[in-house]
Design brief:
7-stranded antiparallel β-sheet, alpha+beta, Alpha-D-Glucose-1,6-Bisphosphate, Chain A, domain 4
Length: 144
């Protein structure tokens, strides 16, 4: 399955950046490609949320579960239902050298093998671009 990993350095404490990333319902306020995030269930260590984003102006919708490890400053997410066959990964937040190093990993499968063969590199580029956009938006918001 395709896997994309992106990183960014944010000039803010790791705990603050991590807590901001946990507030997914705020993402549409500062992430341009995220149209809506609706929290369906909220628990102390996890949420189930419904997402709608745009990729090349095409809407993609899914429901995911995010598990929070407050001690490790880590968010693991996994697709429950939606337009993709597989969509999972993690966010990690590590404070070093006075900044937060964020790593976002995305393991995905669009579920159409012939489509993946034909436009696999384009899909990977779009997933990478979307990941970079999300991290850049998180950085802007955390550094405000």
């Amino acid at each position: 399955m395709p896997y994309v990993e992106t990183t960014i350095v944010i000039a803010a404490p790791a705990r603050i950046v991590y807590e901001l990333a946990k507030e997914q319902e705020r993402f549409p306020d500062f992430m341009p490609d995220v149209e809506t995030v609706r929290i369906l269930e909220r628990h102390p260590d996890r949420v189930i949320s419904q997402w709608k984003t745009l990729v090349e102006e095409a809407p993609i919708e899914w429901t995911e579960e995010d598990r929070f490890d407050d001690g490790a400053l880590r968010i693991d997410y996994q697709l429950l239902d939606g337009d993709l066959d597989k969509f999972e990964g993690s966010w990690t937040f590590e404070e070093r050298d006075g900044a937060t190093h964020v790593l976002l990993g995305v393991d995905y499968d669009f579920g159409v093998p012939t489509l993946a063969e034909l436009i696999g590199p384009t899909l990977e580029r779009k997933v990478r671009e979307n990941s970079v956009m999300m991290l850049a938006a998180l950085k802007r918001e955390a550094e405000r």
